[in-house]
Every structure is written in structure tokens, then in C-alpha cells.
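REVIEWER CHECKLIST
Item 1: Sequence provided? yes
Item 2: Single chain? yes
Item 3: Sequence as submitted:
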Amino acid sequence: MFKTALLASAVAILPFTAAQVSNDFESGWDQTAWPIYAPDCNQGGKVSLDSTTAHSGKNSIRVDGAGGYCGHVFFGTNKVPSGDFYVRTYLKASKALTSSHVSFITMPDPAQGTNKHLRIGGQNSILMYNRESDDATLPDLSPQGVAASTALPTGSWQCFEYHVGSDGSIETWLNGQAIAGLTSIPGQSNPNAGQWQRSSIKPKPSAVYFGWESYGGDTNTFWYDDIVISSSRVGCSGGTNSPASTTLATSTRAPSSSTTTSPAPATSTTSSGCAAAQWSQCGGIGVSTLKSGS
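Item 4: Structure as written out by the authors:
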């Protein structure tokens, strides 16, 4: 109790840019701190606290994503550093990425304009980024670009990390290994980032949301656990037990690669209804009708 109070007090006096926000969901799902995000509409998507599988401990957050743009649903936080920031999440996908365009992380990005997003997901069966404002993809979807990325393994927990830099940098790691095709650093050559580097936009996301968005008919279930958002990289072994002077944590236990079974999910939230006038149908595709990436 004293340790937790001391940790909170120490972080409270730090500028937010020096702190971390982390969650292992062992205390449940705080929907005030980690709310649902489903802009315009949500028909069929669901987010729940799941006690049947976890990367560590017993709880994770499960996202059941439906097909079509309005089947999207995310959860997340707007507590992100104001400069460079790094995100680490353990995630598990039930189905492989396909040729269709999907997103499993979305970030509102005012640098692109109102209601535009920086998105991470897949197309052509690989991991990729999509800049909503001009539909650019990272990597390019040429054979060489596809080969420079990687597929997302299914049915097991994966450590996924990325960095969004104030200078426009993008870096990405899967299980600690850098992904060349998902790297774009000013001044450094990437022959597979032609689309991405044609713009002078420097992303400045105002929030990070985890979930599912499909621009065709693909459905999937994703689980998320041991999330960290920080002004510095924590790696796959870092997390909620980081030093008190740099961490806002919901738990002090160390991560492990365990999977537990217990009763059915205790918390579940779903919503319905359509407010997507610009698309005329909730089950249809969204702004990414001709998307070449996510």
C-alpha cells in the first residue's frame, strides 16, 4: 500500500513527457481511463475483460471485431507523451491477416487534419501503416515492400512495439526484432517508403486505441495485455514494474508468459446504431474504400 502511494506521488510531480502509462488489467478494466472508441458508428464490435487468457496474470482485454467499417471498435487512452512516444503491447490474434485492409491500432492524428488517423494493421497478409489523409502506406505494396514487412503470427502472444517520433520517424519491432519495411527515419533511405515519405506531415497522435477496423468483410478477435505507452522504449521485458520515478502503473507484478483459464469474461461492452451519414450504410466500407494499406 505504502509502495503504491509513494509511486503515485513520485510520478505526480513529473512532467507527463517523462512518465509512462501502463496497464496489465489485473485490477479490471477501468472504462473511464481506457474508454471505448468507435467514431461514427459501431455495429457488432465488442470489447470485454477476459479472464480465460492473458500474457501475464489472469486478465486481458478482448476485442471482437465485426466486418465492415461500422463493425469497428477500439479501447485506449489519450494519455500520450507530447513529443516522441513508444508503445508496447502484447497482443494475440485469432486469425491471420489477409489481402484485405484492416487496422488493429488507430491513433487520432491532428497533424493530418480533423478526424484523420494514423493506423497500424495489415493488407496483403503483412503488417503495415496507413496514413488516412492521403492513404499512403508503409511499406509500399510492391513485391519488395511486402517482402520487407512480416506476417503477424496467430494463436499466441506477440510483443509488438512501435515509435512515433516528433521528427516524423516511425520504427516498429515484433518480438524485439526491427521490421525494416515499417521503418521511416528522416535522412535515412528506405526504398520501400516512397508513398510514406512523399508527404511532409509529421504525425502527432493525440491518443492510442487498440481494437479492430475492417474496410471489407474481414472479422477477427484480438487480445491485448501488458500495454505501456512511454517517452522511451521499454522493450519486451519492461512494463508495469518499471522504476517508480518514471512509471504510472496499475500493478507492480513482473510480466510472465503464462496463460490461465477461469470463468467467463466479467466485463463486456458493446454498442450499436449508426451515425455514419457520409457512408450511407453502417455495414459498408469507410473512408478506405480503395485503401492500399492500413
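Item 5: Key structural point noted by reviewer: Residues 2-270 form a domain with the Jelly Rolls fold (CATH 2.60.120.200).
Item 6: Recommendation: ____
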